[in-house]
Amino acid sequence: MSETASKGQDFESTLSSATTEVAEFDNDRRGFVDKLQYVLHQNPALVPLIVLVMSLGIFAVLVGNKFFSPFALTLILQQVQIVGVLAAAQSLIILTAGIDLSVGAIAVLCSVIMGQVTFRYGVPAAISIPIGLAAGTAIGAASGWLVARVKLPPFIVTLGMWQIVLAANYIYSANETIRSQDIEAQAPLLQFFGTKLKYAGASFTFGVIFMVLLFVLLTYVLRHTAWGRHVYAVGDDPEAAELAGVNVKGTIISVYAVVGLICGFAAWVMIGRFGSVSPSATTGVIGNIQSITAVVIGGISLFGGRGSILGALFGALIVGVFELGLRMYGADPQWTFLLIGVLIIGATTVDQWIRKAAA
């Protein structure tokens, strides 16, 4: 008995003198490259912000002080307001590891619905605008249902929806353009987002203000609401998200519905920007690619689950800076496409490199 007690006392004395330090397997002696990789992984919008600042600096040297004039800088904002709103919508889809090839076409169809309901049926613009917004939401929800419930790939669903919406756009409108003068005289509310505010040489439109507020709102929603966390979780690992209690199918459908609603607002912004309502607006064809371009350059991962929606705004601004800067410099417009192509490939490469930090 005494021998057993002696062994117990020896064990306790040994235990009390043992070290209490926790084993660490992470090497704190990271190199500069590893630390940079980690910082960029934690702040995905930092890369496009750096590229944006560098672009402004380069064109300031090439073009001169006139590039930094209030008029030139606000002109960039006016030029990217439609693409910016569509990029905000596209960001939500890509965060869920999907892609939407129909956002531009939905925006054009919603603008046609707003215009045709007003002028063909004599409905006040205050009612036709919500009808257009509801139409965009319904189209988005239909795409989300096909992706979530029928399990079709987002690329196939939205590619087919793009063709369907474009065809419906021309059929419903009979390829009729509603002139700016008619809208201004009979339904000025349709041109609301084209209203300009001028201050100290700068010229803003309500469309630009709406674009900025939209990004601020979505940033808050994605960071500070359960829905926003579910969007990231579904994009990162839908199986794990479902095991954690997330309604994956419901989240996907809601994301596509919200995207359709945002496309409806993009339609309203588009009417304000162009003044008229045209079923053949180029946004229906190239708006999809432009929005994806802004998102990719903005550092949002095409694999889903990672990225800051503010990066999409920076990506749209980068494209606007290159377009205006090269035009003011007198360069061939084709250089814009070349440089943007390089940025797309470079952004994807950087994303792959940053993702290694998570591993």
Write out key terms for the chains shown:
single chain, about 350 residues, mainly alpha, ABC transporter involved in vitamin B12 uptake, BtuC, two-stranded antiparallel sheet, 15 helices, 2 strands, about 75% helix, about 0% strand
How would you describe what is shown here?
It contains 15 helices and two strands. By secondary structure, it is an all-alpha fold. The chain has one domain: Orthogonal Bundle (ABC transporter involved in vitamin B12 uptake, BtuC). A hairpin with a 2-residue loop joins strand 1 and strand 2.
Write the layout of secondary structure elements.
Blueprint: H1 2-16, H2 32-42, H3 46-63, H4 70-95, H5 103-121, H6 125-148, H7 154-173, H8 180-186, E1 196-199, E2 202-205, H9 206-224, H10 226-236, H11 238-243, H12 248-274, H13 283-297, H14 309-329, H15 334-355
Antiparallel strand pairs: 1-2
Concise structural overview:
By secondary structure, the protein is mainly α.
CATH topology-level name: ABC transporter involved in vitamin B12 uptake, BtuC
Please give the order of strands in the largest beta sheet. Answer: 1-2
Low-confidence runs (pLDDT<50, min 5 residues)?
none
Instruction: Give the overall average pLDDT.
Output: 87
What is the total tally of β strands? Answer: 2
Main sheet characteristics: 2 strands, antiparallel
* Shape designation: globular
What is the CA–CA distance across the termini?
54 Å
Give the number of helices: 15
Radius of gyration: 26 Å
Helix content: over 70%
CATH architecture: Orthogonal Bundle
Strand content: under 5%
CATH class: Mainly Alpha
Element-level helix/strand string? HHHHHHHHEEHHHHHHH
